[in-house]
Amino acid sequence: MLGWTLIFLVLALVAGGLGFSGVAGAAAGIAKILFFIFLILLVISLIARAVKGGSPKV
């Protein structure tokens, strides 16, 4: 799950870069939402991995 979260976080950052540069105005709003959703998922994944006792594998 951590791997998927990182992939989608990178996709959200790319979409945000395109949206904020004026390529697509609607992509900026979507990218903001996706960025925060997947940032939260990343934190949850890291906490769950720490509680479970394993080392993080990227």
UniProtKB/TrEMBL annotation:
TM region(s), chain numbering: 29-51
Keywords assigned by UniProt, alphabetized: Cell membrane, Membrane, Transmembrane, Transmembrane helix
Source organism of this protein record: Puniceicoccus vermicola
Pfam families given in the database record: DUF1328 (PF07043)
Listed name of the protein: DUF1328 domain-containing protein
GO cellular component: plasma membrane
InterPro entries cross-referenced by the UniProt entry: DUF1328
